[in-house]
Each structure stands twice: as C-alpha cells, then as structure tokens.
Amino acid sequence: MDYRKSNAPTNTITRDMMTLCEDTGNVYETVKIIAKRSNQISVEIKQDLEKKLQEFASFNDNLEEVFENREQIEISRYYEKLPKSTLIAAQEYKDDNVYHKNPAREI
Q: N or C, which end of the chain has less CB nearby within 10 Å?
C-alpha cells in the first residue's frame, strides 16, 4: 500500500486493542505485526525523501554561501505533515491490508 494515499489520522488516537487483536488472539503478536510493518514504511519514506532531497544537494563546501531552496522546503513540509509510520501501519492492519503469518501456528 502506498503511504501517500493512506487515510490514517495525522494525530495519535486511542484504539481498543481487544478488537484490534481479534484475528491473532494475542495483543503482543498484533503489536509485533504493526511494529514490523511500521519499520518497513519508515524505511520506504526515508529512502523516498533522501532520493528527492538528493536532487538539491550542494557539493561545494562554502560556509559563506547559504541559500534556501523553496522546493526543498516544500518537500520537507510535505513529509512532516504525513502521518507517522506507526499510525499508517495500524490503519493498514485495521483495514486488513497487511499480510502476516505465524510459522509456530502452522505446525
């Protein structure tokens, strides 16, 4: 799922963990699934941001020459306004968009 098209809230909300962990039956397993997906999302966001900011990189080391790039500021503001990766992962889990399996239960 694309993190830019997520309908996750931008602020922290309280969730009922008992209804959230109905399919796994274990609160800790549910938190682990959401945490792993959150790490994947944060790595994807970081790589995307670094790729976009690399276009504006200055390769000269001149301390007197400090300039602001409007496009770079707009890109940074856009990524600051995105929901946090944990909120996106929790929303994906709630919407059943996260594939997970427990090998210990498969036996």
A: C
Three-state DSSP class for residue 80: helix
Q: Which domain holds residue 81?
A: 18-57+67-95
- What's the domain count of the chain? 1
C-alpha–C-alpha distance, residues 49 and 41, integer Å: 12
User: How much helix, strand and coil, in percent to the nearest 5, is found in the chain?
Assistant: 55, 0, 45
Q: Tell me the C-alpha distance between 19 and 94, whole Å.
A: 10
Contact 34/86 with Cβ under 8 angstroms? Answer: yes
Only one residue has tokens 């890109």, namely 75
- pLDDT averaged per 10 residues, the chain (length 107): 73 83 87 93 92 75 60 86 90 86 72
